[in-house]
Amino acid sequence: MLEKDTYFKVFQKLGNLADVEIKKNGDEIYKIAEEDQLIEQLHFIKFETKYIETCLGFIEENLICSREFMKDKVIKVTGGGAWKYKDYITKKLGVRLVILDTQVIQSDIIVGASVSAQPIWVDKEDEMECLIKGCNFLLKNIPDESFLYQRHGNPEYKFQTMESDSVYPFLLVNIGSGVSIFKVESETKYQRIGGTSLGGGTFWGLGSILTKARGFDELLKLAEQGDHRNVDMLVKDIYGGAYHPLGLPAELIASSFGKAARSVMDRQVKAFHEADMVKSLLISISNDIGQIAVLNAKLCKVNKIYFGGYFIRGHPVTMHTISYAISYWSEGDVKALFLRHEGYLGAIGAFLKGVEEEDPERYSWDESPVWGENYARSSGLLSPKLSEDEAQVGVGAERSAMFDKLELDRFAKPLVTCPLLADIAGYLPDTIDLTQDSEAREYWLSCFMEATEKFAERAVLSQPSKKDAEKRADRFKEKYLCRLKELKENPCAYGSLTVRGLLDTREQCLEEFHFVDPYSQQKQQENEFALKQLRHWLLQLDELSWEERQLRLVQGLLAGNVFDWGAKEVAKLLEHGKLDFTKAMTHLKENSWLINEFEEWLERLRGGPHRCAVIFVDNSGFDIILGVFPITRELLKRGTKVSVVMIHNTGLCCHGNRSIRVDYWIVDWFDVWID
Fold it and tell me: Where is the Damage-control phosphatase ARMT1-like metal-binding domain (predicted)?
């Protein structure tokens, strides 16, 4: 069994701040300084129950600074392990135990919400309510949280992208010792509609009787090696082949364990391999659960079933048998879906329930999806091609035989889909899915690996006054390269693998080792250099004919976007100080662009002004100052309302707080150039 610890943390993080300071004499236009920012995080750590002492030791060391500190604090515990270990928890942590209504499944420990009672209390929460609350939270906040498992697919995991309004209704099937089935219609409306006593406990119990395996995972390893056809009676064993009148294929199971039956005439006991018996047992229980789940889905007119619980835990063999059963009994009409973080459902739900009871206004978790997964500090899915022991090698502290972990960062503002998209449901921000394109995956992973050394060097240069910068950069490099190696072996570990995800992971690794923006100085230099060219560039544009000016403005957009600090060739120019906007313009061959709709754009400009234009900016420096701002100015002069959208985060291909503040000043400054 498993223990899951959940806690909420607010910590200070360094962030760059740009102070605009215009100097008439001198090259420096603004300065960059570091300031502290408050970041809110949710932490989830999962221990095996046999490491309960280590689990409580972790709580003592990291969360209970002193008895005085823990006054007015509450520790909430949910699941069956809370009953089993209540005395030990009370003694180890020095707490008083308060037991509420619960249904037994697993153990979750939630630390950090404050109450008025003294001394420390340990509450027990309703397990089922917590499971559903946790499930809703993950589906709403984490991209690629749910997936289909296809054993013979490439890749095996097919991640699902859903808008919030398409999540409900669904069934949640929790397979613990027994099975509970819930119909979930919204975040607040759900009910238990069925279940069965044949669940994970049945598999574990009968498996222990049939074999010498010690523990649940040993049984699953046996099942992976077994062939159920040596134990099960198939249709062909009865009819000699398929039974066509009823449409029964030859390989269909007619009777689970049918070949193990003995009669009074049998003088010898048949010997069966343990692996074959366990495989038959696993399929039998999965088929039973699958049929009951499908019948409930059809009654409720639902076509999505999410599975979770100790029985699943991301094991390929159980996900395959469950998926096969759902597909068979529903004739392909119902999807069997699994969750990347299903092991944390109860812990998340219990935490949310606790903090909402404490302060509903402050902890309005469900108002909007404002949480994001911290890939750098979280564990990924096990590879379907590796055993659990093999998957531990080389992955580092994020996954060990002792614990997994998940960390979520809270965003300052809610994230919503752009309402102007023509097809909101069908829009995918990532053009390449590296989990499916092996050639592209190999290329991009190699690019990021090769660039990591230079990136670490630039991180050191960005903090010349910090004595430990080189040591921290080495730790960043080691961790990021280890993560890239993991993704090479198991591309689906963190959902759909994309270039954006690789960039996000690198940013999070940098932040972990206190590097805010390795390119901050370069961005400052380029911003200042571009600002000095802006007046001359605008005057040049104004001297051109109307039609020629439109072409040069579009070329300026393309030339500005060339300056992407993540590109190999640009990195070489950057290293040798040869970045030049004018040269970039000369490299653009007229009308030779991959997608060329300039004539259509020009024809549209000959008509009336657009009511509104939204321009999404990639980079600071040349890109926005000499590329975006001139065309923005042109549209404004036509009477068009223009929104310039910038990424509000520190990163390689974005502006960050400091650049945005400078850009705001530039907008005010070039207002004088609008007639």
Answer: 455-645
Distance (Å, whole) CA 310 – CA 357? 28
Closest Cα to residue 637, out of 533, 530, 541? 541
Point out the least confidently predicted range of 102-111, 381-390, 513-522: 102-111
Q: Are residues 537 and 658 in the same domain?
A: yes
| H or E element in which residue 604 lies | helix 598-605
61 lies in a domain?
yes
- Residues 334 and 347 both lie in one domain: no
Q: Which domain holds residue 547?
A: 520-673
Co-location of 197 and 104 in the same domain: no
* 371 close to 408: Cβ distance less than 8 angstroms: yes
Number of residues written out for the chain: 675
Please check whether residues 347 and 295 belong to one and the same domain: no
Domain boundary among 317, 338, 359: 338
**pLDDT tens digits, one per residue of 59-95:** 777 766 666 665 556 666 666 666 677 777 777 776 6
How far CA 670 is from CA of 535, 590, 609, in Å, comes to 9, 28, 21
Of 425, 191, 449, nearest in space to 299 by CA: 191
In terms of pLDDT, which residue wins out, 522 or 118?
A: 522
Same domain, 133 and 39: yes
- Residue 452 in domain: no
Domain count of the chain? 3
Q: What is the pLDDT of residues 298-354, one digit of tens each?
A: 999 999 999 998 899 889 999 999 999 999 999 999 999 999 998 888 888 888 877
* Burial grade of 456 (CB within 10 A; 0-12, 13-18, 19 or more): buried
